[in-house]
Amino acid sequence: MTELFQDGKFLDFGPSEFVVRSSSARSGRVEGDKPSRLRSQVRLLAPNLPGVYGMLDSEEELIYVGKAKNLRTRLQSYFRKKGRPRKEGRLIAQARSIVWELVPSEFASLLRELELIRRWRPRWNVQGQPLRRRLAFVCLGRAPAPYLFLARKLTSKVQAAFGPITFGKTAQEAVRRLNDWFQLRDCPEPQEMIFPDQGELFPGVRPAGCLRMEIGTCLGPCTGTCTRRDYQTQARRARAFLIGEDLGLLAQLQAQMEAAAAVQQFERAAELRDRWNALSWLARSLERVRKAQAEMSFIYPTAGVDGQTTWHLIHGARVIATIEAPRDVAGRRSAREKIEAVYRNHAGLLDSYEHADSMMVVMMWFRKHPAERKRCLTTAEALQI
Question: Which of 30, 50, 46, 51 is nearest to 95 (CA)?
Fold first, then answer.
């Protein structure tokens, strides 16, 4: 682990999980106190090959990481004043050094960029993500009164997680609507939950911690009037919706919306429409993730510019490992051991936000390049090579 953290001046990006060790990456660096100086060196030294690049400021701090199908073309675009984004102009004004590292393929450059942004957290990378957007899980909390909430990282407080989905107003609205529909609490953790079957010494009805019980959107587990069994039943129904087993609430909302519109209750119909839009968006988003997790388990071979073939072991839409394609008996034996280790585990739950980010990279790549899916190998096919 010590090689991941360098003291003093920036030396290099560090090791990679996505570039096999036998294909040692070639790197380069140019320096200049003015953009014109950097531009002339980039034009002279940057290769016309795929790779990742970084920009360092006067303090030798890595302030930005990017990837490119063609390093020279991409880096030169920063110096074109006409038509370039404002951010790129401000970035190149702060840069005093540009470093790069060659990678075997464009797909590998996406993975390497993600890896480097997670490792270095450059301040100019939006929210530390190459996808330029925030991801989150829909989480179901643990006992005594589980409820739904959004989280970017999974902790011991979570009994089940669904996603990832894009974090934003629609996601927040959908989770709020689900808690309302299934009458699950959404109060802060310190709020005490009291069930009538707990056998209190001095039982009695307690005042509700908020107004949701009065308006019928919460069972009120803080009041002592809701049994543990009834509450858990609602939590199970919410889980059934999130895993796609029971989407009946969407049909109910649509029927209510149409009935309200039929009697010209247009404000009511519009409010129901907003609920349906948020919840149907969530259902579609989770369905896409489930489909990717179920279908995207294969070995993706990519040919590098150096002529070497790399196998990306993708399981549950995540790149779990990268190995060199076997070329001899020893290589086949090593590949077999790695493949069996990766695909033996069939757990589908993502255990970190980093895994969610990697999953989105894989999903977006094959959505953009559907023909590449035909080149992938099943584990059985790979083991026969």
Answer: 30
